[in-house]
Write a structure and sequence with these properties.
The protein is an alpha+beta fold. It folds into two domains: 39-110, Antifreeze-like/N-acetylneuraminic acid synthase C-terminal domain (Type Iii Antifreeze Protein Isoform Hplc 12); 123-224, no CATH class. The chain contains three helices and ten strands; from the N terminus they run αβαββββββββαβ.
């Protein structure tokens, strides 16, 4: 009899312990869920913000506002205080509804291409949309030296030949070669197969029209040079279906 009572008491104690553990676990899960959902005030764009707009101007014109966002939905690097950006300027255009990110705000000297793109005298920056394959499988980065090969119909047949050689890459996607710590100093843009990204080049100003026409009406491939001092390839008049395999 005593053993039966003892067994019942042990079972009751174990049940109470298990119940208490379950309650502790559930309460902990509830606290974690509440913590994730706890709103935090972040700054977001209320109106379109053009590159070059200061944080203070954006605030005074009500182009930005504070919005309560669940903690788990806050983007890393989000602006939590106006003091973080009031003396900085937007490095890029920002669309309504976007959370403001500190890395997208830079000093006045780095705005509107003066610091974001280092354009040599006598050159102009031209961006060309290119897929991953045409960018040497994505290995082209800001600061590299490249050449452009154009394929389009000439003299009654498709012809491939160099359009420009030994030109500098200023940016790939939104990553620019810059002297600003805010830009990170170059880097590679991650792209998936077939994805198109803009490659911004320093093009001699007298060749800008040719590059734009070629991009609009031809097919451009990019080659990556070993160094800025690489010798240009001598022009051989281009390659067609008649001479691609050395036919005379």
């Amino acid at each position: 009899m005593q053993s039966r009572v003892l067994a019942i008491l042990v079972a009751v104690v174990l049940a109470l312990v298990a119940t208490a553990a379950l309650v502790v676990y559930v309460n902990g899960a509830d606290r974690r869920a509440i913590s994730d959902q706890k709103p935090v005030l972040v700054w977001v764009a209320a109106k379109p913000i053009t590159a070059g707009t200061s944080g203070l101007t954006a605030s005074n014109t009500e182009a930005i506002k504070r919005v309560a966002v669940p903690k788990k939905n806050i983007v890393p690097g989000a602006v939590l205080s106006l003091n973080q950006i009031q003396n900085l300027r937007a490095a890029v255009d920002i669309m309504p509804g976007e959370q403001l990110l500190l890395k997208r705000w830079v000093g006045a000297a780095d705005v509107a291409g003066r610091g974001l793109l280092q354009i040599p005298e006598g050159y102009q920056a031209v961006a060309i949309g290119m897929d991953l394959t045409r960018q040497v499988a994505g290995f082209v980065t800001p600061g590299d030296t490249v050449s452009l090969l154009l394929t389009m119909q000439r003299r009654g047949s498709d012809r491939s030949e160099f359009l420009l050689q030994n030109i500098r890459v200023l940016a790939v996607g939104a990553t620019a070669l810059a002297n600003s710590a805010a830009q990170g100093g170059g880097g590679r843009v991650t792209q998936g197969k077939g994805q198109v990204a803009a490659v911004t080049l320093a093009v001699p100003q007298e060749k800008v029209e040719s590059v734009v026409f070629a991009a609009e009406h031809g097919s451009i491939y990019m080659t990556l040079l070993a160094s800025p001092d690489a010798k240009p390839v001598p022009s051989g008049g281009g390659v067609t279906a008649d001479n691609v395999v050395g036919a005379q």
